[in-house]
Design brief:
434 Repressor (Amino-terminal Domain), about 60% helix, elongated
Length: about 150
């Protein structure tokens, strides 16, 4: 008995702000947005496409296609990249329109926080804080909380 695979339908059933209203072979806006985030984080870390590919078991050409949005990143590969690039999965979806992001549990405040942490000042703050003993860090955080509630 031979089993035949049924061909996938080329039309999606979703109409989520036009992000998924396209034929499967074409690049979707969400694929391009995720690709931009992969490229941004990779370049922030000073990695080449080849070195990122080597870490996750892909060729630099495949990384190039992901970053251009011409190939879709599977959920497992995105998870692997997130781990290697040191970012939460939500980072890759931060370019989605607000109404889409809210439905997925993403908030602009989280995006703003991650953008700050990625900035030179944010990285310096995190690296310096992590170099301190935990007890000292907790006291500094308490002081910062007091300072944000007081009028300066």
């Amino acid at each position: 008995m031979q089993h035949r695979r049924q061909a996938r339908t080329t039309e999606t059933n979703f109409s989520c702000i036009g992000l998924l209203e396209t034929r499967v072979p074409e690049a979707l806006e969400i694929d391009e947005a995720i690709g931009r985030k992969i490229r941004a984080r990779r370049t922030d870390l000073g990695l080449s496409q080849g070195s990122l590919g080597a870490k996750v078991g892909l060729s630099f050409q495949q990384i190039q296609k992901y970053e251009a949005g011409t190939n879709r990143v599977s959920s497992s590969m995105l998870f692997q990249m997130a781990c290697y690039l040191g970012m939460p999965l939500t980072y890759f979806f931060s370019e989605l329109p607000d109404t889409m992001g809210e439905g997925m549990g993403l908030r602009a405040e989280e995006d703003r926080n991650w953008e700050y942490v990625r900035s030179p000042e944010g990285r310096l703050l995190v690296e310096t804080a992590l170099a301190l003993p935990r007890q000292v860090r907790s006291r500094i955080v308490a002081l910062m909380e007091i300072m944000t509630t007081e009028e300066i």
